[in-house]
Protein 1
Amino acid sequence: MRLGVCYYPEHWPESMWEDDARRMKALGIEQVRIAEFAWSRIEPAPGEYDWGWLDRAIDVLGAAGLKVVMCTPTATPPKWLIDRHPDILPIGADGRPRAFGSRRHYDFSSPSYFEASQRICTAVAERYGRHPAVAYWQTDNEFGCHHTVLSYSPAAVARFREWLKARYRTIDALNDAWGTVFWSMEYRSFDEIDAPVATVTEAHPSHRLDYRRFASDEVARYNRMQVEIIRAHSPGRPVAHNFMQLFTEFDHYKVAADLDVASWDSYPLGALEEQWFAPDVKARWLRSGHPDFASFNHDVYRGMSKLPFWVMEQQPGPVNWAMWNPAPLPGMVRLWSWEAFAHGAGCVSYFRWRQAPFAQEQMHAGLNTPDNRLDVGGNEAAQVADEIRTVLASNGDANAAIRSKVALVYDYEAKWLFEIHPQGADFHYPRFAFEYYSALRALGLDVDVVPVDAPLDGYSLVVVPPLPVVPDDFAVRLARSGAQVVLGPRTGSKTRDVRIPTNLPPGALASVLPARIWRVESMRPNVTEGVRLADSQQASVADGLARHWRDFIDSDAAASLDVRARFADGHPAYVRSGAFHYFASLFDDALTVRLFERIAREAGVTTLQLSDSVRISRRGALTYAFNYGDDTHTLTDVADDAFVIGSRALAPQGVAVYRSR
Amino acid sequence: MRLGVCYYPEHWPESMWEDDARRMKALGIEQVRIAEFAWSRIEPAPGEYDWGWLDRAIDVLGAAGLKVVMCTPTATPPKWLIDRHPDILPIGADGRPRAFGSRRHYDFSSPSYFEASQRICTAVAERYGRHPAVAYWQTDNEFGCHHTVLSYSPAAVARFREWLKARYRTIDALNDAWGTVFWSMEYRSFDEIDAPVATVTEAHPSHRLDYRRFASDEVARYNRMQVEIIRAHSPGRPVAHNFMQLFTEFDHYKVAADLDVASWDSYPLGALEEQWFAPDVKARWLRSGHPDFASFNHDVYRGMSKLPFWVMEQQPGPVNWAMWNPAPLPGMVRLWSWEAFAHGAGCVSYFRWRQAPFAQEQMHAGLNTPDNRLDVGGNEAAQVADEIRTVLASNGDANAAIRSKVALVYDYEAKWLFEIHPQGADFHYPRFAFEYYSALRALGLDVDVVPVDAPLDGYSLVVVPPLPVVPDDFAVRLARSGAQVVLGPRTGSKTRDVRIPTNLPPGALASVLPARIWRVESMRPNVTEGVRLADSQQASVADGLARHWRDFIDSDAAASLDVRARFADGHPAYVRSGAFHYFASLFDDALTVRLFERIAREAGVTTLQLSDSVRISRRGALTYAFNYGDDTHTLTDVADDAFVIGSRALAPQGVAVYRSR
Amino acid sequence: MRLGVCYYPEHWPESMWEDDARRMKALGIEQVRIAEFAWSRIEPAPGEYDWGWLDRAIDVLGAAGLKVVMCTPTATPPKWLIDRHPDILPIGADGRPRAFGSRRHYDFSSPSYFEASQRICTAVAERYGRHPAVAYWQTDNEFGCHHTVLSYSPAAVARFREWLKARYRTIDALNDAWGTVFWSMEYRSFDEIDAPVATVTEAHPSHRLDYRRFASDEVARYNRMQVEIIRAHSPGRPVAHNFMQLFTEFDHYKVAADLDVASWDSYPLGALEEQWFAPDVKARWLRSGHPDFASFNHDVYRGMSKLPFWVMEQQPGPVNWAMWNPAPLPGMVRLWSWEAFAHGAGCVSYFRWRQAPFAQEQMHAGLNTPDNRLDVGGNEAAQVADEIRTVLASNGDANAAIRSKVALVYDYEAKWLFEIHPQGADFHYPRFAFEYYSALRALGLDVDVVPVDAPLDGYSLVVVPPLPVVPDDFAVRLARSGAQVVLGPRTGSKTRDVRIPTNLPPGALASVLPARIWRVESMRPNVTEGVRLADSQQASVADGLARHWRDFIDSDAAASLDVRARFADGHPAYVRSGAFHYFASLFDDALTVRLFERIAREAGVTTLQLSDSVRISRRGALTYAFNYGDDTHTLTDVADDAFVIGSRALAPQGVAVYRSR
């Protein structure tokens, strides 16, 4: 558990650097990320490097006892490089280059940029790889931000063709796999295949999904190149990348596999505004963020990080980039920080040390205001630094690794597939995964978020949000785990080539859940369907509502299943076969929590009934409680002397840490 | 009355074909449409034809006693053809080619594609034109789908200039007709005229309407080329095209004039979701479709078909292409089928035999599921096949032609003109035509939908939704018919060159309706205006509401008119002159029904008062009743022994057929 | 005070001209604007001028005793010119030329067009500059209409680079001013700088604001070229341009500085529909327009006009260009006309004499219908002409200049800056300026709208809507004026280079208002914050609501301020320091009026409490009262014999003119 900060010495007079470093250290900050946007200062003209300022900046930080997270500066190629190699610019879906003048104006498939990146990364890694103050590395910055994973350039298409060749070997195999016979879309050679863009109506879904997979692999390849250069020149220093909150445009598991630290950038208020939440939900959590949103991301990135994950950028106050940008309530910066540690974070690093008074992000708060006074977020960071010392001294095994009883299977291709092939316009995978996660958290459960190929042994409950493509061994691994398994609708509904399984959904899961899905329907937002539990206590009223989607389960197959709930028209809504529970729709929040509670009980997992604003996490021997609401919450079942931080009365925006019973 | 199905042997192993054909026949299917998307299998490489598989498929179908509807495969030119002739691709309004990778990626004006189409049509027609199993033909597939009527290619512009020359002869005549003096848009030669696209503000409305007319004529020319080739090689076989539901981007009358059969593709649930209906209406008819939507299309296409019209594609279950895709209620596939026959259909052909498990439409249901089990729709089709035998045996003259007492004038240019020149943003012609149609149907009336140049003799009531351009002889033909005539607002408001008539609206109709329209106003959606009938029974409350539009009728002219209703501010809302009734606005549904009922009575036409979910049609000596609602409807005034199908108690989603009194 | 009309002799047979001129004169019209779209008739082919028709048209008008407002025809370059110089077409943000076929298809930076404009303006000015009937000139027509201020052409970029060189002199100065070090956006020479368009994420705000300033300066330069040519050839004739209502895409003060008359085109109903007003507000004022909208524009353009401003185009009936186009209530054309005179107009000129029956604007009403009968608007114009005579004869100093006690500071760059750099998505500057104006008008106050560099002496109250950039001397000038000063939120929040001031907001105003703004937040539309006045009479209820935005005022600084209101969470909402009043948010209408009333009282300015539909203006010795509502309003405090027009009972849509007490 430690604090960090993001710092841009190149934005400030050199005369301020020493004082900045001193004040960081005094505040309790231990690591400082630098230089991820500094290419034009490192190499102001082609081949002319200016290391002096950066040498001095690192020396100042090191002299103050701070550890540096050194970045490669590839997120912002300078103008002279673009002018020399215009093919670096990514090509949009409209066929036009995306221009210089902001950031991330590069195409992952551009050979010119790959070469230029190798050169600058090598230069930086050679110079600082063994510098004593440089303790960690970050590759690039926020891969994919601003919709930059996909490019439709000739370079991308050329590499896509190679990617397809490697995957399918023959063009006949591709035609067969995709089913190009439909609409005479058959290809005679890989060289006939273009990017799936600008077609008259929707392009072929298999073509589109492969293009997404290809583009994701390009990100992994580009990151791997950087990691290899860094490792060659900077042995022993962990390499991180800062992923984005709930970002899904590439497969993060594949990129994280090459890293030591998966870190992410946490902006709870900006996320609330920009994500799918309804306007009333956005107003409800306006200045605190949704109680489960940062948690979900913590659990996502913890799962893919070899070392403890970090929050590389923590929102310290209002940001600039959402449609509307409210100010966090007092105490929220502290709460968010502790929530990260409670979920296993090794470091929480604030973005940024001081608000920049110019350029695109000048309205983004820092720990200090532009006139260099400590801001509210800075004061709260100082409080957290103090509290870390208290917690570390509590013998609570505060830095313990986390392993939960509950696993939630989370997948990136699922997002792409449902986006490409929605069948219902609002079938938004991350939302549904989040809603399942949120229901588990409302029951006080700690959750591991895992990929579909993760080992599942040791879990008591495995929850699978809608997962269209399941691996061949998934049923076996689930069954062997001994866990109770909840499967969301549409699970097993597609093959990896985006086809309907020969035996219909749930396809490869039919061996454990013999429920032939013979029909589906998507429901518009103003339509719901009542759901009645088989053991309902209510004579005529529905126990809950189905929304968005319905799988129709064959009634013959259903005869061998335990039908635990039905839709108003009699079709099965929730069926069970042994330890496998299949939800044929997306239920409202209350019903989802109620069903998860029942299944958790069957799994032997103890649950709580938390209000929507209180959340509990456990790490090591300590329990962490957080109050996102407006009213004081009284913690019961905790001994008075168990508190390390806080007390029974958990104030609004309050944090308590106590020894678990 | 017979059933058909759409079938894609190229999607399935040849080993399945015989069983498919046998099961089709056993189900009661008589005709099978094939090959409309099979170009890449018929001609896998330039000039290399592979007829073998298609020969065998047709033989298998023929051997099973099925009749084949053979299609030209021009809706999906293969990749090799596009690569050889990139000018085949249509050019979008953004100036970019619309790419290969889905379907309909061709420009109707492309000389390359015209030539390639001639070649492939000739090849197919030569090979199968006299095949004994081939009984019918279909040209291409769904002309214009995915916004493909308009292209902005150099080829289209070149042909547009020729089209203009033929229409106006001299550039001075064009400048005069359009009024290009406005804003100095005058042309010195036809070669100066471009497509009306990408202009700084709206392009000239006369220019735009002529471009729409031109593009429509291009579709007719392209279809005519195919029909002529087919007729030359396949004498005696009727030629059809499958139009789309309420599709209006080209003049269907002109295309149908070259065909024997006008057929259309009926997807009641997809249409409900995609058309203009308000969200609550979409929820109300979610799984049945709107009670008047399929009917309206039946009556539209019946009117332009030389032989009895067909439903070439009938929705058999959920589809894949709407924003949300609900499942039809049990019974709806049967109801939709009978409704088509009740409106005069010769054939109802289901789309498709078996759901394809791959490519863009894999979520589109068929009569069979992808694992080859008969689906709900398949069972209902079998029931319809049985019932057809019963009805044909009833001596009810079931295949009789239909001729109604009521005609509704329906026009394509009206749609384009109001779209180009709306004056009120929501003045959506097909919606208003549909609302008039629906009001007539609520009165139990059978309706002929006719073009503006149709003979009108024999009708008792002629209803004209807003029709901006009326032919010179329209007033005379209407007057001679002896019918009561209802004219919607904006009727006669423009000349064919998109000008205001010299005498102001209703222009050429002033001879029969001397109502000078000196001003108009459009009303935003949250504004209505009360309407009071001249003989209102209510002292102060409005009898109904005017919406969207108001024509202001000159008070001097109005003095010679019978003012039957006024707006709240005193302006005439409904005036009558002899048999001519002019509505100065679009009234709410209830008021529209009430006025139509009164005028029908004046026309000597008997009406019923049907609930919004029950509909009645008459064909031959039989009456057909349909229940779209959730409650049983009791049919009165029918003798118990009159029922051929069903009974007095018309269940939800139920059908009854009985001998008319 | 006089009336005018816009007339297009080229649209009508020459045989009608004399009668038109005679009827204009008889109606009371004194001036006629012509020829602004007539280039293709003046020069039908390159270099071939046809002056005959225009000579005769001017002679006819002059002979009837009418004064001509002669226009340059540059808003509509003819097709032959575009074909010769395709670089005239502006380039859109999508990189594509905006095509010929409507109007304003020219790039202000195109050298070809600049040269062609010089040529045609010289030709017109030479021919008619000394014609006795030509009394005034208009340059071009509605600069910037249809989003034509900005172009992204190579010509524009080349001129932008020159503009930047002139502004910054060295590239280092530009890099420093903008802060391009952020995201490595540094430039090595001016030639590396492109237009800020098509970037991956938002382009640099300083870059964007400079591009807007540059584009605005291009308009001024283009207009100045025309004015100089006219003045050289037509000495003594005032030169006008017709600006658009609330148009903000260029700095109107800079363009008006080169003119004699600032005129504007008033379409109250079209504006209501197209501007930001909520749907219920649009319905409320559907057929009258918003009571403060035309007034606001009158006051804007009065302030920048050397001679009395004009309404160059007055809506005479329904227009064609809004989404919906209602008809004005009877009396509104008269009311609008008198409102213009009440605000200081020298002329009200109706658009147009007769509705054109062809082309894009055929549904735009005129004083006469297309069949040449006087329309309602024409009759009301005749009434106004009569009433002008009465008013002029009243010894009320009717043509007096207006100078108000209250000034509202209105700025164009503020609009651009908040649009480029919003921080809250709905921070729409013209709306907020209008709401302040409207609150002042509800208090019965006459308002001068002035630029930020206007002399402020003599005002009692100065209201400053959110003004991000303030001149260095603004604080001093405000303080010296002796006025009470209201500053909206975000005032002083940016430097001219779009940076946060070193001392934080209010930046250069801190000398008079020592209120350090250390944080801001924007609020989404479904969020408000209660506001309590320091002297609130209510125990627990809020006195009003804050919306959209909050400035957080440093509590230490606030200690030296008079905190007159607080937000519900205790932060200051309204602080006062001497004569300076700072609003930290945008309050609801009622609270804004209440606070303005209190401050006006402190400023010694007498206020009224007007209902939302009655408005009062004063000019010379006369007071003008207008009733926008549906109910008769009784004027009190007016002697019976004081009325020049009207009486105490001010009917709906009524006008009264009376001698001020």
Protein 2
Amino acid sequence: MMIPLEEARRLVLDACPLLEPGPVPLSEALGCVTAEAVVATEAVPPFANTAMDGYAVRAADTAGATPEAPARLAVVGTLAAGQAPLEPVGPGQAVRIMTGAPLPEGADAVVMVELTREDGAGAVLVTAEVPPGNHIRPAGDDLQAGQEVLPAGTELRPAHLGVLASLGYSQVLVRPRPRVGVLSTGDELVEGGEKLRPGQIRDSNRPTLLALLRDSGCDGVDLGRAKDAEGDIEEALERGLDICDAVITSGGVSVGDYDYTKAVLDRLSEGAMHWLQVAIKPAKPLAFGVVRGTPVFGLPGNPVSSMVSFECFARPALRAMAGHHHLHRPEVMAVADDGLPRRPDGKLHLDRVTAEAGADGRFHIRSVGGQGSHQLLATARANALALVPDGPGIPRGGTVRTLLLHV
Amino acid sequence: MMIPLEEARRLVLDACPLLEPGPVPLSEALGCVTAEAVVATEAVPPFANTAMDGYAVRAADTAGATPEAPARLAVVGTLAAGQAPLEPVGPGQAVRIMTGAPLPEGADAVVMVELTREDGAGAVLVTAEVPPGNHIRPAGDDLQAGQEVLPAGTELRPAHLGVLASLGYSQVLVRPRPRVGVLSTGDELVEGGEKLRPGQIRDSNRPTLLALLRDSGCDGVDLGRAKDAEGDIEEALERGLDICDAVITSGGVSVGDYDYTKAVLDRLSEGAMHWLQVAIKPAKPLAFGVVRGTPVFGLPGNPVSSMVSFECFARPALRAMAGHHHLHRPEVMAVADDGLPRRPDGKLHLDRVTAEAGADGRFHIRSVGGQGSHQLLATARANALALVPDGPGIPRGGTVRTLLLHV
């Protein structure tokens, strides 16, 4: 019995726990999600200051000033950024002032330097009339003390970290990056440059999944390879369950597979594993269950299937655990420039395609060819997945929901 | 004299050197760019194998088989993945075979287990006729020995790393992630939770720029803060030039600024720094030069200006140094749902906007408000930059070139 993608994903998402938050230094918090609202403890900027280099003046003193009839003001001081204002600006006076410097008492406007001429003997000629408030940033112009600046649930981007730094925060309460163990199983697997003996292949799923995890903001933990033996598999899984927030295995979940992984997972989970057949191609088989509080994803063993299954199930679940609201890749209705033919088989097909923004403002996609579930090289050329519904496929120029993996 | 964005960027890109390649372990290579073509040293898969669990047979033996009149074959062995095939399959014989296992000699097809019934006494009933090659992946089906699998200049995505692992590579020759020093200058800057004295503000540019670097695949190096004193600035810059592939400073590049940074950079570069006024808003001032072979970017001090300047100049230049072909953020023609009004001023405006894919297949954008060059919180809400050309702006429903920063 095959179940629809959305139903399988709902089952997974409903079972995954939200990770407990903890404080993280700003330098490590990029991409993490805040676990509480952040309130401004002080105003930014903390004092009125100048947005330009020029002269702090009383606006009234510039009334009627023109290049032909400039206002002449006595320069009573100079203020650089970082200096505390000392002398007030009285009538007929000005203070030379640099961008970011605090506005001295008495002044209510800044004249940019381009509208002034020095006039020897400690005076400046102002060649234009300026209104009160000219080029002044009031205190609290960006953030006011007490203002909520980031709601709980904010995914921290570089500018958010800047905002936190501008408020004096050196750490922030976020949900941690999920630590996710990756285990390969199978007697046929070798790795590295080792010579292949008859029947052996090299393990490509583990490096691919570890890279997908990094790309998804998780910390991948390499649990190695287990032989097709219950003891080996159980030992590696136990290690993963001990130190990780989630564990991903690949292989050993298809109908009729030798059932070492199945037997171990069923025993460790006390029968709580789901062995699903999802109505998608590739990546029909999926094992999922929560073992002692830790989600375990049993992805299919074919390289392309394991990637697609990661995208469909593990990635959104791990993002949910880390507190993200946007669980899925951005989705666009894309134009299939070459068409995406298929045959009805009761499944949603996730075709690997290249997507590119066109001059018409739409994304246009083309199949990468090689849609076999083992053809990893073709998949490597794809930057998107087209969701081709059951039926005859998408005609040339037709549109189709498309997930952008990277653009 | 203001120069157009493209001209300033060309000047920067033409001056930045390509980094020297070196070998990197696969586990560290995600996002790096290959510096030479990668050739398959062996076929993948290395041997013909089965795509399904079932029975390896001679196709001719299944001729005419139906559920009512199955073909009866003697089961002469079992092959799991990873096992070397021993017994050949003779006429009237079959071998039980698991996904990924090598095809035994003599067999030319696989019957999936669902189309068979066991028949006691070491025999199987095949209930359908299958053609030669059924469910068989030939050797080299994914990659053939000698085939170029990745051209030089490939940005390594997770599937590429899987392909390399499947070929036995444990490292790959790539251009390194640029190491980029970030220096803040200014007497007004403090950091962390230190109490502010009059005239002081907290440094937000350094944490923001370090996060932007991480987000852009670079290794950021925190060069700290320098006081407004030539000795301090020179010492920090020298340190950055010694250990980094590029150095970014912020502040001290505007017309009329106190010229400590300028004086030091002009001296260190032997007069080769460019002090540019770019026809964009925000981020008009830009200093750029190559000092002893190392690019130095002097970004404006306002928080939003420094981010926009990073996007316009530093990010594409650093990507070019790392060998990327796609230097820029993905660009779409987006629909301005609310319009983006502006006044003519001879500049291209880079408005901070939120972009979202609509049901019509296009991206729709809205201004985040607060377009002041110091208003970092508003900028933090943006996920795109709209390139609003000089003139009256974009009317509601009009389209505008838009760079997607993250979607």
